[in-house]
Amino acid sequence: MATPIGNLGDITARALDTLRRADVVAAEDTRHTRALLGHFGIGAKLVSLHEHNERRAGEQVVAWIAEGKSVALVSDAGTPAVSDPGAGVVDAVRASGARVVPVPGASALTAAVSASGLSFEGIVFAGFLPAKGAERRSRLAALAAGPWAIALFEAPHRVKATLADLHRALGERDVVIARELTKRFESLARLPLAAAGAWIEADADRGRGEFVLLVEGRDPGPRAGAADPRAVLSALLAELPVKQAVALAAKITGARRNELYAMALEMKDL
């Protein structure tokens, strides 16, 4: 079930009723959830369920449900299993034949989209990017290949680097930086990716808090639905040798290798 992402006023009447009726509340961080429950005068039994004990705790949740108990699953903020622990538990409960009931509520993703002003036909939710290495490069290249708007979560210590990587991979697009949504220091700004790093640096407070990044979709132009070979190749050349970058770009875009190779040599000479 969803809990507020900041402002406690965003909790739903259904969520409060669910928490009051639950025999057990399985929480990502019992200290955080205890404060939430205390605010609303709820004295439910709390147990810890986080990414390091999810499999074992999931087995216990299944056992409780088999005994006829009701279990409410919550993360620290937002919805379990959406870039938070919980998917394994839900899968185990479903596999046992028990019923899983979603209790929706506040979402940083939908809050950011609704206030972004971006228009799009489709959006890709990429969660948190891999921290570094080949997996990160591959994910960025895949995102660059699609025409859709992109939504990401990011932590404060990585946001500047992520904005720079997005600019290299996606080219000249606008980004909406949504920070601390529903909280006291909430802010939203829309600007070109090329200027995003400087915008963060201009004020120390802009680099603090939790972030949702929304990048506008690629303009397909006359080749609707096709990946932009130059954008994809540029992202790959930043991290890979020419031969590997060309081979991967050919697979992603469908462009001819000889054309991509000539383009790569031209980019290397710039």
Would you write up a description of this structure?
- There is one protein chain.
- The protein is an alpha/beta fold and 270 residues long.
- It folds into three domains: 99 residues, Tetrapyrrole methylase, N-terminal domain (Cobalt-precorrin-4 Transmethylase, domain 1, 3-Layer(aba) Sandwich); 107 residues, Tetrapyrrole methylase, C-terminal domain (Methyltransferase, Cobalt-precorrin-4 Transmethylase, Domain 2, 2-Layer Sandwich), CATH 3.30.950; 41 residues, no CATH class.
- Helices cover 43% and strands 14% of the residues.
- The mean pLDDT is 91.
- It is elongated.
- Strands 4-5-8-6-7 form a five-stranded mixed β-sheet. A three-stranded parallel β-sheet has the order 2-1-3, with helices on both faces.
- Helix 3 packs parallel to helix 4, helix 9 packs antiparallel against helix 10 and helix 10 packs across helix 11.
Ordered list of secondary-structure elements with their pairings:
Elements: H1 13-21, E1 24-27, H2 30-39, E2 45-48, H3 54-66, E3 71-74, H4 87-95, H5 108-114, E4 123-125, H6 133-145, E5 149-154, H7 159-170, E6 174-179, E7 187-192, H8 193-201, E8 211-215, H9 229-237, H10 242-253, H11 257-269
Parallel strand pairs: 1-2, 1-3, 4-5
Antiparallel strand pairs: 5-8, 6-7, 6-8
Helix pairs in contact: 3-4, 6-7, 6-9, 7-8, 7-9, 9-10, 9-11, 10-11
